[in-house]
Amino acid sequence: MTYDYETAAKNYESAMIDDLSALIRIDSERDTAHATKDEPLGPGPAEGLRHALAMAERDGFTTKNVENVAGRIEIGSGDDILGVLSHVDVVPAGEGWDTDAFEPVLKDGKIYGRGSADDKGPLIAAYYALRILRDLKVPLNKRVHLILGSDEESEWYGMDRYLATQETPTLGFSPDAEFPIINGEKGIASFLVSQNRVAAKPAAYTLTSFTGGIRPNMVPVSATAIISGALPADFAAKLQAFAKANGVTADLSTDGSQNTIVLHGRGAHASTPEIGINAGTYLAAFLDESGLDLDPAGKQYVASITKLLHQDTTGVKTGINYIDKKMGALSATGDIFNFSQDGDQTILINVRYPQGTDAASIRDQYETAFGVDAYTVTIDGHAQEPHYVAMDDPLVQTLLQVYTDHTGLEGHEVIVGGGTYGRMLERGVAFGAQMPGAPDVMHLPNEFIKVEDIVRAAAIYADAIARLAND
Q: Catalytic: 135?
């Protein structure tokens, strides 16, 4: 039987806009500083999860809330489970928004707001795919679980708890990337580079603090340095000349002997650091070449960043660079900078690495490059190994055929540096919802998704689920 998924999706356009807008209004950033026993990831992620499940209950679906950190929406029946893995959490809003990041704006056919593209818009598309399948009475010979995590942008605790306590899907996809498919994902690891204490000695200027970045998976948009001491008369001019020459902006303010420099670059997802302008490394480079007689700790800190991280997103300067024929090149970006004279003096580097290398080897090389006497390097959190599902797997073939049938475009495999829940399943991939050629605005200011893309994705997902659930 032939089903008109496109028309069915179009009929839900207004409802999709309303439900996505309601989700965007929830600031669902992980917030363990305000965690409780009932909301271990903080109030925002729990609220986002409960709201999504309540939306499904409103429409008559069976749901399951797992410890307020994950959940599912169910349809279909059978022995096997097809998983559709999405997430309700978001990265912080950050700087540079033209509007309130958590007040959705519908303009020129686009919905603006944090999470609109990653991953609340695609989640809504996947949810309405379930509604379409039920409306059209499409038979499903597998149980279909739309599974919702609530800290995909950080440590994946929610999905880990879900898989530890619930049945694991046999196969599935995550609507958290782009079409035609993502069947390979590089490994992901963060490395904490900690500067060992440096002996003090008299200097004309002291780097009181150096900060930049808010998340390991976001290239920092801005960075701030506070320097004590009376600056040279030409310092402000040098700063502006540097900013102009490097496509950044910078501000200088002075309060007594304290001078604050704020440098603004351009943010990017950590999987594509080459499209960003890393404010942290540019600020360090300016200070390193400024000629200021900085204190020993501050001087070493900015010199190391400049020498080993500045204008290098493939790890050549540190010697961690690696290229795999199938998965491509390693990428690396310093994403969180934290320096104070009496506190932490650290750099958190996020690395996306292909098969053929590993996190332990990268850590060892970082320590060699930074210097074992000057720095200690540790793997921060849990490293995720590279993931790949072969092109000839029926899951990949089916999804690519669905994509081609709905777009008229030829499908092909894609391997990326980003990480999705698809990698949590042995036969798991990422599938949409970003259309080819669309700008990648995930994690950026003024994030948006086109309404027509949500509607089209809902139709594609409905067809894909129907085919996979009846193989």
A: no
